[in-house]
Amino acid sequence: MLEVIIAQYGLVAVFVGTFFEGEIVVVAGGFLSRLGFISLCWVYITAFVATFLGDQFFFYLGRKKGTSFLEKRPHLHKRAQKVHNLIHNHQNKILFCYRFLYGLRIPTLLAMGTSELSTKKFALLNLLNSFVWTSIFVFGGYFFGEFFTYLIENVHEFEKEIILSIVSVAIAVWLASIILNRKEYN
Prior knowledge:
Layout: H1 2-9, H2 11-19, H3 23-34, H4 40-71, H5 74-97, H6 105-114, H7 119-143, H8 145-153, H9 159-185
Helix pairs in contact: 1-3, 2-3, 2-4, 3-4, 3-7, 4-6, 4-7, 5-6, 5-7
């Protein structure tokens, strides 16, 4: 489904998907480049620009509106305080690793925007981080495209394993969320 959207809408789909948490979109773009549907060079450039601009946008949004937004949402404010503590104690590590935490990129950027982190430092490290992230996911999709193609073409051979894996992961995530929510609200 995602591949069809990217094949149909091309670089616009890559840009929009990458701007908002785009790991899967970027891998799919690299994969479609491998299959010849879209230019690898343009997927890379588009993903790089979109991820850099997206992170800058959410950082600035946090800088301008983050404090009032978080104060109205106590459960998020509590989490943002944890991020502030992490930023204070491990600033460079957080600045490099936040992008690789699937599903936490935007909340972390909003929290970083509300911190005392300098805009200039964030922009410079975001530029470097965007380059590394884009390279890993675009080229990962491109070079592992043949492997994925094999899996897709032969998925019927792995149906039982795939279903068991999906069910196992779903149960593990469900149990982990129950345990974490109990600890958080107790």
